Structures are given as C-alpha cells and as structure tokens.
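Table 4 source record.
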Amino acid sequence: MFESLAASVFDSAEDFWAWFLDKPLTIILILLFGTIAIGVLRRVVTALAEGIAAGQKPRAVVEQADPVGAPGIDVPGAKRRRKNVLMTPQALADALVAANPRAAERRAQRARTVGSVLNSTINVVIGTVMVLWILQVIGMNIAPLIATAGVAGVAIGFGAQTLVKDFISGIFLLIEDQFGVGDNVDLGGGVIGTVEAMGLRLTQVRAFDGTLWYVRNGEILRAGNRTQEWSRAVASVQVPLGTDVDAVRAALGRAADRIKDDPELAQHLLETPSVRGVDAVDGAGLTFTLHAQVRPAQQWAVARSLRVAAHAELLSAGIVARSAPTPTEEHAVGDTPGVS
C-alpha cells in the first residue's frame, strides 16, 4: 500500500527516496537526536542533583592538640586522646554540617531547585534550536522570525524585568547558600526572623512577634545569617562601681565552668566559655562579658544559661549584679525570651 501511494505521488521510487532523504529524513533526525540530547542531559542533571541532595556522611578528622591546649570541639564518634583537641578547617566544617539538623534538608532543597532550573533551561534551549532548524529545513526564512522573537523578548523582558530579577536573585541565593529554611536572618528594612520558605521569587521570614514577611528575592541587597555554620553566645552582666574586679572575674570563671560541665549545654559548645573582662565603665557600673562559640541557632539558649550561672555565682560571692544589654538581642522563632 505504501509503495502504491508513493507511486501515485512520485514518478519513480528514486524520486520518492530523493525527496525522503532530502527533508523528511533530516527532520526525523533532528527530532530524534534532539530528543535523545534532552533525555541524556536531563538524566545527567537529575543524577547529579540527587547525588548532591543525598550527600555523603561527613567524617571528622581529629588532630593532636598543640602543647598550649586549644578549646575542645565535641564531635560524635571522634576518637580523642586528650580532652581538648584541635581540628583541621575541613574537619570543623564537616562537624558543623553534621551537627546542624537542617544542613541535609538545605542541601537537598538547593540541589533539586538548581537541577529543576537546569532541566527547564535544557528543554527550552534545545527545543528552540530544534524548531528553528526544522523551519529552516522546510524552506522557511527564519531571519524575520528570529528578529520578531528578539523584539518580543526585549519587550517582555523590559516589562517583566522585576520578575526576572527576582528569579535570577533567587537562583543565586540558592546556589551560594546565603541562607536556608530555618535560618535566623536579617534582610534589612526591619525584616528579622526565621526563614520559613524559600522560592525562586519570594522568601518568607517569620519575625519573633509572629509577623510573616514576604520578601522578593530581587529586593534582598544584603543578608545577615545568624545561624550559619556557627554562632556566638554573648552574655553581659553589670556590677556596681567599686566592686573587686578580680572577684568578679573569678565568679564569672566559675559560671563558665558550670556551663562547660553541664552535659546538656556542653553538646552545643564549640569552645570553652570565657570571660572577656571589663567591656564598659559608666555611671551604672562595670560591664563584664562572657562569650562562647556554639553550634548554629544555639547562641540564645547558651547565653541565657550563662546569665543565670553568672548571677548565681556572683550572688554566692556577695556581689549584686544585673544583666546588661547585649548587642543584637534577637531570638529565633519559638525561642523563649532571655532570663534576666
């Protein structure tokens, strides 16, 4: 039947095959190889994205401490000969990732989002090339079409430049991992709180008072992340003028030891709490500061415990004290306000 149909249209079989090999076969090959290219590239991108999303279990490399003794970092499963150890920068980074329960979720979200964007880009680019190539094969002049599409693209891009800016900014926010869901951030303009959702166009931030901020990614000019990799707990106390400084430092040192020896709090510490000394002298008294490097998002809980321990030790030493204002006094969502 096919041969009879071909014979009715073409004068000879040679004419049919000449026609078939000229355009139809070229179009079929374009569709075939274009589809294969899309499939292969999408599989590669998806495999890479899923591999990054799954990740590998980090291993902390622990080195011998130097003779002076560096602050210990408690890494589950790490073997230590001494109480205080010194870790390589890479081992510290791996330990921080392992300690952050949101790290795997953030990595998976970032990898899958970028993978989805790349897959969509592959579809659009290869699909457009295939269509233009086929139109050229069948004899259509594609130059006016490309020019028209270019003008239309410029017009659409000009009208939707804000939307495009938001999407591009969202992609870079994810790729660079500036912040993720669960991080406590300061995005400027009074937007301070915990990130509840991230998209390519919008970021949702929940403030401590419950306000949910919707921030377009293109409007984020700076981002302060208070819970990325590590944080610092800072607690300030104030004592009356004329108080024995050495006695205060001794009491605060005992308070720091109490926090270090508390099993529940010690798991959040990345260094031993220390007393910085007299930070300010004014009419209200002397201000002393305790601080410690801690795991992400644990600075507020550790700071409150430092204040409580400091007050207890100062009172036992017969020194009356009160909490002094601490810089960037901000709490994560669900965090209980600090205890004075």
